[in-house]
Amino acid sequence: MGTVLRENIGLLNDKIIVKVEKNDYLPSFEKALKDYSKKANIPGFRKGMVPAGLIKKMYGNSVFTDEVLKSVEKELTDYMTKEKLDIFAQPLPLPENDARQINMGKPEEYSFAFEVGLKPEFTLPELDKLTPTRYKITVTDQMLNEEIERLQLRNGKMTEPETVTGDDNVLNISFTESDENGNPIEGGVHKENSVLVKYFNESFRKEWIGKKKDDSVVLQLSKAFDEKERDWITHDLGFAKDDIAAADKFFKVLITKIGLVEKSELNETFFKTVYPDKDITTEEAFRATVKEEIEQYWNNQSRSQLQHTLYHELLNHTKIDFPESFLKRWLLNGGEKPKTQEEVEQEFPSFTDQLKWTLILDKVARENNIEVAADDIKNFARQQLLGYMGAQAVDETQPWVADYISRMMQDRRFVEDAVHRIRTDKILAWTESQVKPVEKQIGSEEFTKMQEEHHHHH
Question: What is the CATH number of the domain that holds 293?
Fold first, then answer.
């Protein structure tokens, strides 16, 4: 019968030695040979009638080695199950192991050693003592008016004037990378786009006034757009976010179509178009509904910011020890693709942060019975579909909606991603319920700037 020895070789790092005797692997070896002889297809012999001696001569050594290693693996797995070892990744075979010691002609006791990294015990910060800030974003009349105007434009009537007359003209344009004189650059970027004149910076907008279809201008991105719009344009043109030189590139921009949206009037027809499921008959009720939606959007942003704060609280103030030497060796050789020592050292801090967060999620879920049910995943798929459809009203009782959800439930990758997201959301919601946030009023611009600075810092 196999024996297993275990010794500590470092912090949360153990060595497990598995020894197997002849009786552990010989019966399975003999059975495997018989199975081979039944299935072997060798010229000159009928299937299933190949002599055992020939099978042993042809396949014996490899079958023997396989069965010994299977016995070792079984003993190791049984031991870890019995001892309830909670380990990282998989046991790593140690360099001292040598499969060449296995000899079919000389069956004996074989010994193989493995290294394991043990998951640590730890405690979470006392969440009920935390008083993070929950921001309350002020919804101003200007924000409300701008959103209503956006809805009027989105649901307005598109016309095609002959010339560009102002900021609200929609330009269908093609960007062709060029030199400063408008001569195309071989192999340069060419991209179609659709933009409002007001997306260009104020000093450049006058270049468009009076232009017609098939007219063109030569522009330099850094001078035609302010930073926010320039980042969006350069990204759309296919340049990397950190490509500093992209802003200084020149483009010849050709007008392919001019449009102008006539804003929808504030009447019942418009109200019904924007909110088909609501009975809104007055401008006052419409404004109240829009304001409520804006407030809900910023409340969601504020909640996300609070949860992000709590994420960092948990990550930065939960002390967890790791079997570093084991994990580094596992990163070096245990992944799908071997890494260099330099790559391991570079990736290790973010790798342990990910491990730490996973351990925290597991602990919170386990201790608070947080689970993801099938209905949660179905609802996730339903919400995803509604998100794809945008503002379009969807009759959720239609058979194709149920078909979509059923199809997604059979998609393993979708289900795994959904479970991870839903579980994380539930855990962060639980974490949020444990703290005592202090509410603070703040403007939308200040809040947005604060978020941008935080993301830039991280």
Answer: 1.10.3120
